[in-house]
Amino acid sequence: MLNSILNCTPRVLTSLQFDYDVDAWLRMAWFDPRLRHGSSRPVLINEYTFLKKIWRPDPIFTNSKAATFHKVTYLNFFMFIFPSGEVFLNIRVYLKPTAAQIVLCKYPHDSPACSLKISSLGFTQDVVRFEWFSKLDDAIQLNHDLQIPELTLLNFNSSICDGTRKSGNYSCLEAHFYLKREIGYHIAQTYIPTAICVVFSWISVWLPEEFVEGRIFVSLTVFLTLSAESNSAKEELPKVSYIKVLQELIRR
Predict the structure, then answer these.
(1) How far is it, in rounded angstroms, from Cα 140 to Cα 3?
(2) What is the distance between the alpha carbons of residues 97 and 22, in angstroms, rounded to a whole number?
(3) For the chain, which domains are there?
(4) Distances (CA, A) of 129 to 91, 133, 229, 236
(5) What was the pLDDT predicted at 18?
(6) Which of 30, 55, 58, 236 is in Cβ range 3.0-4.6 Å of 121 for a Cys bridge?
(7) What's the CA gap between 121 and 116, in Å, rounded?
(8) Is the pTM of this model over 0.85?
């Protein structure tokens, strides 16, 4: 049995690529009776040469497109081996998971959801079984100073996502992150300018009937402004097959 804790800091969530960056400390604890010793204090392992000689589980991040260890100025890890044979491993990783649960039909009033899956690479469930620590605050710890541009982290939770492959049943853990998009930028850059254009278009109603050039000038100015604003908003979003709330607002 393997207990896991994830101490992570999501960095940036990109709407254009549907992915985000995570700087995480992966903490694992398991019991290995072969490593029992008679010392009254836990043994510290912080040399990779010794780490390679000790059995350890093989977790992988199944929905991550890229992953790497932090090696500046030293490989960021440490291991404690307690007298009873309990092993505690702490290692720092950098990940680029895929945020697949993003639907932009309500953009910018949407609430993106991200997940991070941890599974065993080769050991089946009868050899290694992953479990979160019993308390959620112990299982997933987030940086309290976390600031994500345009997004606010609302909540997070943990779950089990055990699955089956051709070679057997494999243990899997999943961390969920629920976010909310801040609309302050869109209010200043889209909503307020659009409202001003609508108010400005009413001027043509109060112009004298003989002032034809003025009526045409006001209508063309509003039309060109809204067209430029619509094109600017489209450039910031991925090409999807449905209409977003922001586009519907500008159209109307």
Answers:
(1) 12
(2) 8
(3) 2-181 (2.70.170.10), 184-251 (1.20.58.390)
(4) 19, 13, 53, 43
(5) 62
(6) 58
(7) 15
(8) no
